[in-house]
C-alpha cells in the first residue's frame, strides 16, 4: 500500500483551449502539511478545485489516488464525504446565523418529526471548538459577532465537523492580523499532530517555512518540483516559483523628487457608527513630485480611513482641506477625485475594486468610459485597442479580455485594478495594500511599475501593513497611530523597523 494518503499524477485542465494545468503532481501523507507554492495564475486554486470536485471527474485529465484507490468524485458533496474539505479564501459563513448553525449547516441533528435538535447541535459545536482550543467562542452567538480571524477558525471547525482527513487551506491568513495568524498556524500544527493532512496555499513564505513539512511548487500550470522544507531556503522556493534569481525583493531605483505637489490639511474622520470617536484626528502632510510616500501603522490605526477621505470614499463624516499644486480642490466623491487627477487602488479589491461578472477589459476601462464615447455610443475598436495595451503593459494573464475578471487569480485581478486607476493618467496615485494576497513575482512587478511611474513624474501614496515593504519602497514614511500622525521620517540609513513601530505605539512621537 502507498505511503501517501493522496496522490495526484499528471493532472491536466484546460479552459476554452487554454491549458491551465499541464501534468501536475502532488503527494500528501497523513498528518503532513504540504505547502503549495506558485505565482498568481500558476494553477494552485485550479488544482485544488480539481481535487475537491468543484471541477468534477471527467472534466480534467490525470489520476487522483485517495487512500490507495482511484478517486472519481462528481461533486463537492462526494469529495467531502471521502474526507477532502477545502476552505476557500472567501469565507463561506452566513453572518446572521449562530456559530453552531454555521458549523452544521445542511447537516443539522434532528429529533423525531424532523425538527432541528438545537440542544444537541450547541453541545456538539461546543465540544468541537473546545477540542480545537476555541472553547471561549459562544456557539449560540451570531458569527457576525466575531472578528475575521475567529471566523476563519470557525470555518476550520466546520470543515473538521465533516470528518476531514485532508484540509485544503487557500490563502487562509490574507485578511488576518499577526496575532490571528499565529493562532491559526498553531491550530494547523495541532491538526497535524492529530493525523489530519493539510495542503496549505499561501504567498507568505514565512508561514510555509513555519508549518509545512514538504513544499510543492508549480509554475505556469506545470509541476516544477517538491522537496522537504528542511532542504529548502526561502530563496530556493522563490527561484522555483518565478524561474529566476530574485536577490533583491525590493528593486529600489533612484528617481528625482521635486517640489510639493499635494497637500492634506487637518484631515479628520468621524466613526460612522460612533460620532464620539475620531478614526482620523487632524492629520496633515505633504507629497512631492515623483515621491513614494509610505504610510505605516498598526491595523485599525486609521490609515485606510485617511486615504479614503482624500479620495472622497470615506463613508462617514469627515473634514479637512486637500490641495493640488497649491490650490484647494473639492473632493466629495471618487468621481470628482479622478477628475482632479487623484486615483486610488482600494484595500479590498473584491468589494471595491472590481465588478466580478464583467470582463477583464471592461473592468480596466470603467474609469475612462467617457474617452471612448461618440454620440452616446462606445467606440469598441478604440476601447479594445486601449485594453490590449493595458493588459500588455501590466502583463495581466488572461485567456481573453472578455473573460470575467472573477476568473483571474488574485494577483492578476490586482494588476487589472491598478491598470484601471492608471487609465485616467493621475497626478497622484494612492495604493492601499497594493500587494495583499499577491505572490512574490507579482509583488516585484508592482514595485517595478511604481518606480517606473514616479520616474515619469507621478507621485504615489502607499499604505502597507508590511514594514519591510514600506522601508524597501518608500522615499519617506508617515506613521499613523490611533488616528494621529505620530511620525514623518525620511527613509534613510537611520530609519529602522523598530523606530517605525515605536512611533506607531507611542502617542505624539515626532520626527527629530
Automatic annotation (TrEMBL):
Membrane topology: Peripheral membrane protein
Gene Ontology molecular-function annotations: ABC-type D-xylose transporter activity; ATP binding; ATP hydrolysis activity
Swiss-Prot/TrEMBL keywords: ATP-binding, Cell inner membrane, Cell membrane, Membrane, Nucleotide-binding, Repeat, Sugar transport, Translocase, Transport
Compartments (UniProt record): Cell membrane
Main location: membrane
Top-level taxon of origin: Bacteria
Entry protein name: Xylose ABC transporter ATP-binding protein
Keyword DNA damage on entry: no
Record-linked InterPro entries: AAA+_ATPase (IPR003593), ABC_carbohydrate_import_ATPase (IPR050107), ABC_transporter-like_ATP-bd (IPR003439), ABC_transporter-like_CS (IPR017871), ABC_transptr_XylG (IPR013455), P-loop_NTPase (IPR027417)
GO CC annotation: plasma membrane
Organism name: Lichenicola cladoniae
Annotated CDD domains: ABC_Carb_Monos_I, ABC_Carb_Monos_II
Record SMART domains: AAA (SM00382)
Ranges for domain ABC transporter: 6-245, 260-507
SUPFAM superfamilies: P-loop containing nucleoside triphosphate hydrolases
